[in-house]
Amino acid sequence: MTTFNKITREKIIEYLQQVEEPVLKEDIISLGLVREIEIDKKHVFLHMEDSSGDPKVREILKVNIQHVLELSGGVEEVTVHFSNVKTEEKNSTRQRPIPGIKHVIAVASGKGGVGKSTVAVNLALALQSLGARVGLMDGDIYGPNIPIMLGISSSKRPEGNAEGKILPLEAYHLKTISIGFFANPEQPVIWRGPLLHKTIEQFLHQVEWGELDYLIVDMPPGTGDVQLSLAQWVRLAGAVIVSTPQEVALSDVRKAVNMFRQLEVKILGVVENMTGPVFGKGGGEKMAEVLQVPFLGAIPLEAQIRECGDSGTPIVVAQPKSLLRGYFIQIAEAIRQTVR
Ligand SMILES: Nc1ncnc2c1ncn2[C@@H]1O[C@H](COP(=O)(O)OP(=O)(O)OP(=O)(O)O)[C@@H](O)[C@H]1O
Ligand SMILES: [Mg+2]
């Protein structure tokens, strides 16, 4: 039996994270230089932003990209196309406002498991309790967590309206959409790039969100193609970066911040999550200082926060009088101050 080493988009992204832009000294994925990836059997086409306009830099990038992808074992030919995004993308017509939605805010991080979804859900509910009209989009196409965190039954499916738009589901008066509402939970979701890009577009533009002050988007971990896609389909009011307090988290936060900067998305600030005796405290504030972005607040590591998330009643609604809710309210207030 022969083993066919099939290359996937996710694997390509992983490999490309090893390629450093020679001038900026960051990997090309974090920098958001890779605009599109197409796979045709063993032939990979990459559309890249021309970061420097320097043919020597382009040549180095091309050689290094070909080198890492050929090492993957599943790729035989690589075509790299460079385009000057500074002129092409700025006039992009793909990026269009969503009628009725004032601000779209991404909740992101450089790394998985730091509490993005927890922050996104509780922040959305906190903004709502301050009187704002809020929606929550689950941008995590590979591992959606929003349905469980909001306690939405796996048998519930969104319906379409007369205009063919998708009606979001609602929990705690929060309108929400997630790939988890459509996919069979038993089946692993293997996305081809164009499908992923299309799904993000549909979640933004084909969902009947109604009038919203804020649409919060829970992002998947890392600095990959969902981030690129989101920034291409809609003008973001900004990104909230979640981090844990440790020193080592700095490089992940830096990556996330750089990627959004590259996409010309404003960084609204850093939230330090899981503060306390286990992971320490204060790292997030230092990071914010180093990276020159606002510090939005810290949230302690507390079993109750996890329990509430697991049981589908986020802490902000489960414990309306608790101190823990107060942390999220504070962050929501800081955001409301900057994005109005
Ligand atoms: N402040 C906190 N205190 C205790 N547990 C927390 C806290 N924040 C998040 N958790 C728990 O940590 C786990 C990871 O959190 P969460 O799913 O929000 O992270 P994530 O960054 O969205 O992860 P992924 O990268 O997989 O999407 C969850 O079980 C969550 O309940
Ligand atoms: Mg998550």
List strands and helices in order, with pairings:
Blueprint: H1 9-16, E1 34-40, E2 43-49, H2 55-71, E3 77-83, H3 85-88, E4 101-108, H4 116-129, E5 134-138, H5 146-149, E6 169-171, E7 174-177, H6 193-205, E8 212-218, H7 225-233, E9 238-243, H8 250-262, E10 267-275, H9 283-291, E11 295-300, H10 303-310, H11 315-318, H12 323-338
Parallel strand pairs: 2-3, 4-8, 4-9, 5-7, 5-8, 9-10, 10-11
Antiparallel strand pairs: 1-2, 6-7
The structure holds adenosine-5'-triphosphate and magnesium ion (MG).
Magnesium ion is lined by residues 116-117, 140, 145, 218.
Describe it for me?
With 340 residues, this protein is an alpha/beta fold. Helix content is 35%, strand content 20%. The protein has 2 domains: 77 residues, Fe-S cluster assembly (FSCA) (GMP Synthetase, Chain A, domain 3); 238 residues, Rossmann fold (3-Layer(aba) Sandwich), CATH 3.40.50.300. The strands form 2 sheets. Strands 6-7-5-8-4-9-10-11 form an 8-stranded mixed beta sheet, sandwiched between helices. A 3-stranded mixed beta sheet has the order 1-2-3. Helix 9 links the parallel strand 10 and strand 11. Helix 8 runs parallel beside helix 9. Adenosine-5'-triphosphate binds next to helix 4, strand 10 and helix 10.
Q: Uncertain spans, ≥5 residues at pLDDT below 50?
A: 86-93
The CATH architecture name of the largest domain reads 3-Layer(aba) Sandwich
Count of helical regions: 12
> How many independent structural domains?
2
Give the beta-strand count. Answer: 11
CATH class of the largest domain: Alpha Beta
* DSSP helix fraction: 25-40%
Major beta sheet, strand line-up: 6-7-5-8-4-9-10-11
Q: N- to C-terminal separation?
A: 61 Å
Cα shape? globular
| Average residue-wise pLDDT | 88
Query: What small molecules accompany the polymer chains?
Result: adenosine-5'-triphosphate, magnesium ion
Largest sheet: 8 strands, mixed
Strand content: 15-25%
The CATH topology label of the largest domain is Rossmann fold
**What structural category do the secondary elements indicate?**
alpha/beta
CATH superfamily of the largest domain: P-loop containing nucleotide triphosphate hydrolases
**What would you report as the Rg, rounded to the nearest angstrom?**
20 Å
Order of helices and strands: HEEHEHEHEHEEHEHEHEHEHHH
